[in-house]
Amino acid sequence: MPHLDPDELSLLALYDDWVDDDGREHLRVCPACAADYAALRRTVSAVKSSPDPSGLSIPGPQVWAGIHRELGLSASLEQDPLAAAAPEAGQAQPVKGPAAVRRLPLGGPNGAQGAEARSVKGRGRAGRRAAWWQRPGTWMTAAAAAVLVIFGALWVANREPRELAGAELAPVAQHSATGSAKVVQQPDGSRRLEVRLDKDEARGYQEVWLIAPDLSRLVSVGVMNAETGTFDVPAGLDLAEYPIVDVSDEPMDGNPAHSSDSIARGTLSS
Q1: What is the DSSP letter of 156?
Q2: The domain that contains 185 carries what CATH number?
Q3: Which of 14, 111, 167, 269 has the most CB atoms in a 10 Å sphere around its CB?
Q4: Are residues 20 and 73 in the same domain?
Q5: How confident is the model at residue 113 (pLDDT cuts 50, 70, 90)?
Q6: Cα–Cα distance measured from residue 45 to residue 168, given in angstroms and rounded to the nearest whole number
Q7: Nearest Cα to 85, choosing from 105, 58, 62?
Q8: Phi then psi for 14, rounded to 5 degrees?
Q9: Quick one: average pLDDT of 52-61?
Q10: What b/e sequence results for 200-238 when a residue is b if at least 16 CB atoms lie within 10 Å of its CB, and e otherwise?
Q11: pTM above 0.85, yes or no
Q12: Half-sphere exposure of 25 (CA within 13 A, CB side)
């Protein structure tokens, strides 16, 4: 079953009212896409919420450098947007709490003492305006960049082959060959069965099968001319109904049926 395109997945995560009935139905039946969707929704929710500045610290310039490098941004955006919020070396930090109150001159709102108090209060407001988390443009720029990095990571992950199931192949009857098999899902949603044996014991030729647990139904996926082979799993074939991987020794008799002479066999499990 093909996975959702990353662009389609992003739109579904960004907009609750995005009309895509097929895409939302796919999320209901595909655990892999549903997990990616949930991760994107958490990111979107985090970006839309107002951050609590009490426990935040200004990240170092290496953070923006990494974002700039991953997104391939132009040289004009190389400057860290949060650099202006970092305190300069040797700069005195504002004193908070009771100590700051004791330093304020006593007096009413009028006169020199009142003017100095208003000046200190004004500087406090200016300092608050300079805090990086209170500047919407800077915050949204950094948040949007973080979202793009996550989208890019998911885009790459969705294009990497993914192992769905595997099996150890044990020898059958008089044979001694052992090996392994695994089903790998490709980026386009197709599945491939990869089989390996430690030796070729066929007197005729090796044929690879997927068989039902009760051995009443079987599907041939191809001929293995060496000790390894890769085969396309038929689209729509439910591996839960055909979990047994079987490598048989087939004679050159023109009969497409299983010879009943199995070399090695194992059961797929996820």
Answers
A1: H
A2: 2.60.40
A3: 167
A4: no
A5: very low
A6: 44
A7: 58
A8: -75, -35
A9: 70
A10: ebbeeebbbbbbeeeeeeeebbeebeeeebebebeeeee
A11: no
A12: 4
